[in-house]
Amino acid sequence: MADNNIQPVEHEHNDRVIFGFWVYLMTDLTMFAVLFAVYAVLRNNTFGGPTAGELLKLPQALAETLILLTSSFTCGLAVLAANAGSKKQAYLWFGITFLLGATFLGLELREFSHLLADGQSFRNSGFLSAFFTLVGTHGLHITVGLFWIAVSMVMMHVRGLTASIKSKLVRLGLFWHFLDIVWIFIFTIVYLMGAAR
Amino acid sequence: MNQKTVFKYVLGLLLSIFLTLLAYKLVVDQTFAGNKLIFAILTLALVQLVVQLIFFLHVGSEPRPHWNLAMFVSTVGLILIIVVGSLWIMANLNYNMTPQQIQDYITSQEGGF
């Protein structure tokens, strides 16, 4: 599309397996789309409580966005290193990805606990229910991704960079990039549009 | 490592950071107002989606036939139907509610939880 001369290393093997995983990602995307639709419908139904713009802190959301964006980049480099057969670099980049992902999750949990401590529970209003469901589902995916990275590192250590491990790492990379894309829309629709009102 | 692909990732990262900061600045400065601002930041998010699809997920650069791309496009169609359809129906229902019905509902919910 952008440059046909590029031979993506990632797609040399297991095209069919990767397509299968891609189909899963697309169904996951559809699920997120439904949650986005729910949020868009309910976002003004605050039941007398504070709105998204009054409740959510934009600078922290920007920090989370930049952290996740960088982790998506380092994850790409990790998969490239694995495909090039460089185990050390793969460990390094996946390690950085893991730390950035964990930082992101920590910031998100901190935000949730502050909201709950302020009495802004998901039980208060349609808006808060939709907010916690949408952002929480994404956070749950990030948690799964972190476990996946950890398990993959152990597998890479035990079995070495075999073709099957490389293919697994490619799918892990796709999953992580996908989560970053979903977050871009959470950042735009929940945080930026909340503050834009 | 494949230098060309690394370059793709660097370019994707820089473009994404730029688009994110631009959207953030538009909102903080309130450069536009109301619907114009919302339209602007949604457009920036869609541009960033395309950037990441091309530079990070390599959509469209897999060997022909582009099954991944085809799957993605049909999913986008599905998503548009779900999201636009939901917003349309719910806005219409909201519009057709009388102020009395809304007031009755709020009264019925008070002290609910």
If you had to describe this structure to a student in words, what would you say it looks like?
- The complex is a heterodimer of chains A (197) and B (113).
- With 197 residues, chain A is mainly alpha-helical.
- In chain A, 79% of the residues lie in helices and 0% in strands.
- Chain A is elongated.
- Chain B has 113 residues and is mostly helical.
- Helices cover 79% and strands 0% of the residues of chain B.
- The radius of gyration of chain B is 21 Å and the shape is elongated.
- The chains are: A mainly alpha (197), B mainly alpha (113).
- Chains A and B meet through helix 1, helix 3 and helix 6 of A and helix 1, helix 2 and helix 3 of B.
Task: Explain briefly what this protein structure is.
The complex is a heterodimer of chains A (197) and B (113). Chain A has 197 residues and is mainly α.
Please describe the topology of this protein.
The complex is a heterodimer of chains A (197) and B (113).
Chain A: H1 15-42, H2 52-55, H3 58-83, H4 87-117, H5 126-159, H6 163-195
Helix pairs in contact in A: 1-5, 1-6, 3-4, 3-6, 4-5, 5-6
Chain B: H1 3-29, H2 34-55, H3 67-95, H4 99-109
Helix pairs in contact in B: 1-2
Beta-strand percentage range of chain B: under 5%
The beta-strand count of chain B equals 0
SS summary, helix count of chain B: 4
Distance between the termini of chain B: 58 Å
- Topology of chain A as a string of helices (H) and strands (E): HHHHHH
Seen as an oligomer or otherwise, the chain set is heterodimer
Q: Which value, in Å, is the CA radius of gyration of chain A?
A: 19 Å
First CA to last CA of chain A: what distance? 37 Å
User: How big is the Rg of chain B?
Assistant: 21 Å
